Amino acid sequence: MIENLLKEENCVIVDRVQDWKDAVHVSLERLIEQGYCTEEYEKAVFDSTAEFGPYYVLTDNMALIHATNKVGVSKTQMAVTVLREPVQFEEDGADVQILIALCAVDANAHIDGMATVLKLFGDDDKSDDVLAAKTGKEVFEIFRQYADQED
Amino acid sequence: MTEIRKVMCCCGQGLGSSMMVEMNIQKALKKLGKTNVTVGHTSLSEVNPGAADLFVVGRDLAPQLKSYPRVVVLKKIMSVNELTEKLEKAFAEQSDTFFIE
Fold it and tell me: How many CB pairs under 8 A join A and B?
């Protein structure tokens, strides 16, 4: 059930962010406010980025912002931020406009969410649909629609 | 060659892309008609060469698995098409060591 992993009010459209750090912050803000994870988790994303580079940029325009499940995670949850103006996580990197924040308590609890992300951003990429959404509610509806769809 | 019975996907955290690659491998195995193959996902810090017969990683982590005997590297981490093609090659390999990029 995607509704357990992603709330409508946590799907938002934002005009722009200052830089990639701001993008990480904005994407996680709601999850932190609502107690799904803490600021320590955000710090873990920055620490891991320093170690591995932007490992969470998975396609030409989507990033799955996440860190380890061992620091600052209290409950599994996702949030989606669509940026009107793209952001780059490294020089000459992808123009990212879709930020999917994830905090996961273990390696498996978020499987329905990841299955949905695969349907939306796999070979049959649906990011144009997500980018065409006019409201956060429309973004959420797209995620819900593909979550329910059979493979 | 040693039969591939266990495939391990790994990524930096063992939570995001490795889980999606695991799901894609299940689909690819079905397409290729392979049964009796188990698939798991883990993080780079927890993986070791004895953990599986074949390892699948994204391009960014490929250098860290250079010493592993059998590795498939994905350019597009989310692509089931690229994965299926490379898995088919891996299963057809005669050698016990290969690095499919």
Answer: 61
Residue B70 covered by a domain: yes
Provide the residue range defining the domain that includes B63. 6-100
Judged by CB atoms closer than 8 Å, whether chains meet at A52 and B77 is answered as no
Q: What is the pTM for the complete model shown?
A: 0.94
The CATH number of the domain holding residue B87 is 3.40.50.2300
Number of separate domains in chain B? 1
Domains and CATH numbers, chain A: 2-148 (3.40.930.10)
Neighbour-count burial of B101, counting CB atoms closer than 10 A to its CB (0-12 exposed, 13-18 middle, 19+ buried): exposed
Whether A55 and B11 lie within 8 Å, measured CB to CB: yes
**How far A111 CA lies from chain B's nearest CA (Å)?**
8
Q: Tell me how close the Cα of A42 comes to any Cα of chain B, in angstroms.
A: 14
User: Where are the extended beta strands (E) located within chain A?
Assistant: 6-14, 62-65, 77-87, 96-103
CA of A68 to nearest chain B CA: how many angstroms apart? 5
Which tens digit of pLDDT belongs to each residue from A17-29? 999 999 999 999 9
Residue B7 tokens read as 């495939």
Nearest-by-CA chain A residue for B80? A123
3-class secondary structure, A64: strand
Sheet (strand A77-87) strand order: A6-14, A77-87, A96-103, A62-65
